[in-house]
TrEMBL record:
Signal peptide: none annotated. PANTHER family: DUF748 DOMAIN-CONTAINING PROTEIN, PROTEIN ASMA. It comes from the Bacteria. Residues 10-199, 356-536 form the AsmA domain. Residues 338-353 have a biased composition (Gly residues). Keywords: Coiled coil. This is AsmA family protein. Residues 596-670 form a coiled coil. Residues 334-353 are annotated as: Disordered. It holds the Pfam family AsmA.
Length: 675
């Protein structure tokens, strides 16, 4: 800012010089002299077009035609740094004759200011780069100690463009009206400005002490108020700009984040309900240390009905800033109520639960995850997520490149505890996933909150690993994949009497007053494409056992499950009646049907198998009887003994071989005896 002030002073002095030369030199010659002197002072070319006109009344002054200041040589923009339709300067004649520069008025009509920062950090408004390094250039800009006053400096109908190629931000302000008052060079000053940013009004009110020190970038007492749309920032304390440093009280009321984001060249969206949709406020002691780091101590943050207290540190990064915070909250509620009505609630109660026709399809905006990285330690006595309620909770929340990880260090819920992590990934779309262990949780309130289903009453453990992709709850549920396992202890399944169905072969044992009491339930499952499959469900009850297998459409909210209950008839669990129970249809209106056809089919298949076994056994018995008869005849008629491990053919072959041998022996003996 000190160079901007110096340039303003240089312009005023040069215009006064032009006024003094008007009497003896033509206006075009004056413009050339002024341009030459300005370039010598700043290293930039100044062009003054049109006639330079003096004024003697009501105050001594000069009005120029169109004025422009050249941009830096390295600038990528082809626009000048400054351009105005005219420049008007009024001075105090008495003070001027006494050697003091007292500017009564300095005004520019419809100026265009084009600011630019290069990728390597150079600023086009830094005129020092255009001057000799030893500062000996002819007509060098007067040092800040050169006193002057300014009753009123004004910009009317101006535009400001700032292209920060280092960070990629672009700031655009239109219809800029500004008033700067410096009644005493070493005393207080005030700047008041209004403009339009993205069509919305912004306003700045800056006041401070010791302008001479502030113009050099030094820290002085200041008070700042900034309004952008419906958002307002206030600061009171001490601050300077070269480098940017401050220490004091900050108060921020931010109901309109998009407007504030446009002002600073960032894309900010309105937070979701519970995260600051209707109320977003911050206060505390702010410290900017001059290196780009910011510290907010004794901070109080309010987001809708939620309040948090603690300390926050914001440090610059290569791609984005990083926030570190230690926060302690009161009860946190993110229960937005957006899932209510008939649009497909995500949970129970007003959300519609099992009775809803589908999942919410509202687009989930997580663009805020890309604004900064973060590492936040959070402690809260309770957390209401809308579809899940937690008790005392300690969590570490980390955000890196639009990916947030919630690491549950401690989370009590539903009489048990939850450990693991939950991930929200906003890189190139939205995906959610995690690995969670739920130990000792009460199933009735858990499933009532998750899906509005309160008929399973038990306590148990659940292991879950999942991943879902999509920009809405509906899309995520339809894409879910993963795996898990559930183990429950004693409990009851309300609204369904399985034993009654088996006893009467009547599927009507459904509804209020019906229940199945069990001693345990366990199973594993897999998820793919929003469909949960299970093939090993086991249920053990006092009077029955059951095995289950089937599919649950998590995305489409459908059921296609087959339960095979067996009513026990003996103490050892054998016998009894088994009737498959089919559970099909949408969650909202499931259908229960006893699969009597399969019983008949299975009975026929069993009878056919038994008949085949009987025929096989009869054939084997007949074969054994025939073999025994043949052995008897071989023994009685031929004298052949069949060993237990020998075959009839082998025994007959051995008997025939022995008979031949005996016959050959007798023939040989007769021949030898005859000789």
């Amino acid at each position: 800012m000190r160079w901007i002030v110096r340039v303003g002073v240089a312009l005023a002095i040069l215009v006064l010089l032009a006024f003094g030369l008007l009497a003896i030199v033509p206006s075009d010659r004056i413009a050339q002299v002024v341009s030459t002197q300005f370039e010598a002072m700043t290293g930039r070319k100044l062009e003054v077009a049109g006639e330079i006109r003096p004024r003697l009344w009501p105050s001594l002054g000069v009005t120029t035609g169109p004025v422009s200041i050249a941009n830096a040589e390295w600038a990528e923009s082809d626009q000048p740094l400054f351009r105005a339709e005219n420049l008007s300067v009024d001075v105090n004649l008495g003070a001027l004759l006494g050697g003091e520069v007292k500017i009564l008025g300095l005004a520019a009509d419809r100026p265009e200011i084009n600011l630019e920062r290069s990728r390597d950090g150079k600023a086009n408004w830094d005129f020092a780069a255009g001057l000799p390094s030893d500062g000996t250039g002819v007509g060098a800009v007067p040092p800040p100690a050169t006193g002057f006053t300014l009753d009123e400096g004004a910009i009317r109908g101006g535009t400001i463009r700032f292209d920060d190629r280092q960070s990629g931000r672009r700031i655009a302000l239109d219809e800029v009206d500004a008033r700067l008052s410096i009644p005493d060079f070493s005393g207080p000053f005030r700047l008041a400005a209004t403009a339009l940013s993205g069509g919305q009004k912004v306003a700045l009110d800056l006041s401070g002490d010791v302008f001479s020190a502030f113009a050099m970038g030094r820290v002085v007492p200041i008070k700042v108020s900034l309004t952008a749309g419906g958002s307002k920032l206030g600061f009171e304390g001490r601050g300077g700009y070269a480098p940017l440093a401050a220490e004091g009280a900050l108060v921020a009321d931010l109901p309109d984040l998009p407007a504030l984001g446009r002002l600073f060249g960032a894309s900010l969206s309105r937070p979701s309900p519970g995260l600051g949709h209707d109320r977003l406020q911050a206060s505390g002691q702010l410290t900017l240390d001059g290196s780009g780091r910011a510290f907010l101590r004794q901070a109080t943050l309010a987001a809708d009905a939620n309040e948090l207290k603690g300390d926050l540190d914001l440090t610059p990064g290569e791609a984005r800033p990083k926030l570190k915070a230690q926060l302690t909250a009161g009860p946190i509620s993110l229960n937005t109520g957006s899932a209510g009505g008939t649009g497909g609630g995500a949970g129970g109660g007003a959300g519609g639960g099992m009775q809803a026709e589908g999942w919410p399809e509202d687009v989930i905006d997580v663009s805020a995850l890309g604004v900064m990285d973060a590492e936040v330690a959070l402690t809260a006595p309770s957390v209401d997520l809308g579809v899940l309620k937690l008790g005392p909770t300690r969590a570490l929340i980390t955000v890196e490149r639009s990916r947030a990880v919630f690491d549950f260090r401690e989370a009590q819920a539903y009489g048990g505890r939850i450990t693991g992590d939950f991930v929200v990934n906003g890189r190139g779309g939205l995906s959610v996933g995690g690995r969670l262990n739920l130990a000792g949780l009460q199933t009735q309130p858990l499933f009532a909150d998750l899906v509005g289903w309160d008929r399973l009453v038990s306590t148990g453990d659940l292991e879950l690993e999942f991943l879902g992709v999509g920009n809405s709850i509906a899309a995520i549920m339809k894409s879910l994949k993963g795996k898990g396992a559930i183990t429950l202890g004693k409990g009851e399944l309300r609204g369904l009497d399985i034993a009654g169905m088996l006893r009467t072969l009547d599927a009507g044992y459904v509804g209020e007053g019906q229940k199945t009491i069990f001693d345990g339930l366990a199973g594993t499952f897999a998820m793919e494409g929003g469909v949960l499959t299970n093939s090993d469900l086991k249920l053990v009850a006092p009077y029955l056992t059951a095995a289950g297998a089937g599919r649950i459409g998590l995305g489409e909210r459908t059921l296609d499950y087959r339960l095979r209950p067996t009513a026990l008839a003996a103490a050892d669990g054998t016998g009894g009646v088994m009737v498959p129970l089919l559970i099909t249809g949408p969650w909202a209106k499931p259908r229960f049907r006893l699969d009597l056809e399969s019983i008949a089919r299975e009975k026929m298949e069993a009878e056919a198998k038994a008949a085949a076994e009987r025929l096989k056994a009869e054939a084997k018995a007949a074969e054994a009887a025939a073999k025994a008869e043949l052995e008897r005849r071989l023994k009685e008629e031929l004298g052949v003994e069949v060993a237990p491990d020998d075959s009839l053919g082998a025994a007959a072959k051995r008997r025939a071989t022995k008979a031949l041998e005996d016959e050959a022996r007798r023939a040989l003996e007769e021949i030898l005896g005859g000789n």
